[in-house]
Amino acid sequence: MDISGEQHLDIKHDIIKKRINAHGDVIESRPDGIGAPKIERPLQRHGGRLEHHETYCGSCFGAEQSDDDCCNSCEDVHEAYRRKGWAMTNMDLIDQCKREGFFQRIKDEDGEGCNIHGSLEVNRVAGNFHFAPGKSLHHTNIFLDDLLAFQKDSYNISHRINGLSFGEYFPGVVNPLDGAQWIHETSNGMYQYFIKVVPTIYTDIRGRTVHSNQYSVTKHFKNLEFIHPNSHPGVFFFYDFSPIKVTFKEEHISFLHFITNICAVIGGIFTVAGIIDSFIYHGQRKMKKKMEIGKFR
Q1: Are residues 244 and 281 in the same domain?
Q2: What would the mean pLDDT of 237-246 be, rounded to a whole number?
Q3: Are residues 144 and 12 part of one domain?
Q4: What is the pTM of this model?
């Protein structure tokens, strides 16, 4: 989401999501329906069961926009309800969700985590992207409540950022959030990163130019008990672009500049050597004087 009003929900392109266990190991994909009750004849939109040689058209449970609408999966019912702006309640009564084992899958995923990597394209205006449970945040106060009915109060937002950058890599760039992690120890909440992005142009010794960005960051944790009741757990990244641009350029130094540096180094060595020699010389003279005075006495 950004301040221009543009929103992208449920981004899948250039994004790879993996289920992982508590040890970070990737869990193999399982076919949908494991643990689901077996229903030989699905419920039709008209209320009866699917008959032989009859095309399946599942009910949208009142959320149909026309008489021809069909909801043949639990996800279709979700979409129909989202379009209406309705909250889904009593999901155990929805035939498609029961058949696909929706509740069983949620219970089976208890204690799991996720690994996400990929890239996003954003406008050069202030905005945010976030990782939060749920299909989308368009109807946040409706859908997320339904999905997290089992675990909202104990949802764990512990996370580790293996790498986060804005733009291409260039030599010498430092990304402050690479390797950052936060362990969930308090009650449920929102973890927020506030990022200031600085446009950067890097030109190497061969003249190749890389247009990229650097950034600085501050972070903050919000306990859900003390913020808006419609807020939900997740990791949020709020970014803004700096009006200042930084330019890095690699250059060869001239031979005269090189000679000057060598002379400066040699001159510095002689200066330091002279100081040390003078210190030793005067130290020896003082010691000799003391010995002569003692002998004279």
Answers
A1: no
A2: 94
A3: yes
A4: 0.63
